[in-house]
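Run: sequence + flavin-adenine dinucleotide -> complex structure.
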Amino acid sequence: MKTIKELDPTSIETFQSKLRGKIVIPEDANYNETRKVYNGMIDKHPGMFVMCVDVADVIAAVNFGRENDLLIAVRGGGHNGGGLGLCDKGLVIDLSGIKFIRVDTSNNTVRVGGGNLWGEVDHATHPFGLAVPAGIISTTGVGGLTLGGGVGHLSRKYGLTIDNLLEADMVLADGSFVTVKEYKHKDLFWAIRGGGGNFGIVTSFKFQAHPVSTVIGGPTLWPIDKTEEMMEWYHDFINNAPDDLNGFIATMIIPGAPFPEHLHNKQFCGIVWCYTGDSETFEELFEPVRAKKPLFEHVGEMPYPAIQTLFDGLMPPGMQWYWRADFFNELGEEVRAQHLKFGSKIPTPLSQMHLYPISGAASRVGNEDTPWAYRDAKYAGVIVGVDPNPENASKITDWCKAYWEALHPYSSGGAYSNFMMDEGQDRVKASYKHNYNRLVEIKQKYDPNNLFKVNQNIKPVSQYA
Ligand SMILES: Cc1cc2nc3c(=O)[nH]c(=O)nc-3n(C[C@H](O)[C@H](O)[C@H](O)COP(=O)(O)OP(=O)(O)OC[C@H]3O[C@@H](n4cnc5c(N)ncnc54)[C@H](O)[C@@H]3O)c2cc1C
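>> structure
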């Protein structure tokens, strides 16, 4: 594998002449700004960025990378915990210039560019009273979140993001362009609904949107010493709730404003709710939650884009993030005890643990219908150590690892790929479980030389020899 520095400068000039977008190299003044991603812990030094503005740029970049034997990374929104939108010394194909959104109200579908962010999609669909299920922070990229699965406030009502993907335009490893959908390149359409960026670069997504305008949502908090009681109650409650109600349970610290002062810097067990039905039904449905006497409740009606941006202010880009994840079927006695133990020792105000329910519509898709192999798990769990100060990097990492190690024996074995960092091939296999072999075969067909390897990598058959 070559590095950019080893290339003949004229080949770089020829490459630039084929592009509408710009290239950025280490000598450029904007290089250090360009190599930043959401996770401040990631410090990679690519040899070149190609800031693509259209599909032709992506084709040229893929061909340039392949013909020159370069390591290629693809960056969508740059949110990936492990920094999988970057690589050292190689070529980064950046999609942030490929942004467009068109809402089609004749069939409630939305066409979105490969480099859009979710906040942009919510902004475009909301005036039409529509929404596409996505994640809970609006600055996350459509590309990475969708290709990995997409868990969020609407998962119980309308499924994962991939369950709402209708079509994708893709540039493949050989530089060819295809449109994939249920009846066209069926294998590839299956693989990209959870298999990540392994199979090509998506330049455009088409989603099914749904009638969601306002929601009733927000957090309820209980003191951390109620964690075991609340988790036991929550397990029964959420798994018997109507699809309209979503709520993810967390251990967390309230860091400061906008929360009331008496809550600041204390640990809590919290649930963040999102309800898509009418307000009268909600009041009745929510009675058992209020009967558990939360210490704090801030639940009310709001436009859907408001709940999607509720935590953006607390989570600006550039902080240190360390991630660990697993799926869980149960919240048994030992599991609840570990959550109390590690929830009581959260090391910094923004570090937290979330359990996202995989029930309702998200659980009514078969384990083999998409690569997302854990539809029958009840929760996608994630532990994140977060802090603005790099000096606290080992503190948040140690807590995150210890929390994960204590819980992992009770997990379903694998994790949601978008909640993982770089944890090696065995974890990737465990996460795709029985779907892994099929993914390997499709990888062999479309990317036999593993050109797209900076991801939760599915190696083609030929690379196992
Ligand atoms: C603060 C925060 C909150 C989050 N919340 C949620 C959540 O609620 N729900 C959830 O499901 N996930 C959530 N995530 C995880 C998120 O889904 C992943 O981090 C995802 O990888 C981000 O996608 P991206 O495009 O921003 O990332 P990038 O770092 O740009 O890319 C991630 C991976 O996807 C590939 N990729 C990106 N775009 C394309 C494309 N168009 N074509 C081909 N490959 C592509 C990249 O090559 C890379 O391998 C969150 C992450 C953060 C940091």
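>> summary
The chain has a mean pLDDT of 97. DSSP finds 14 helices and 19 strands in the chain.
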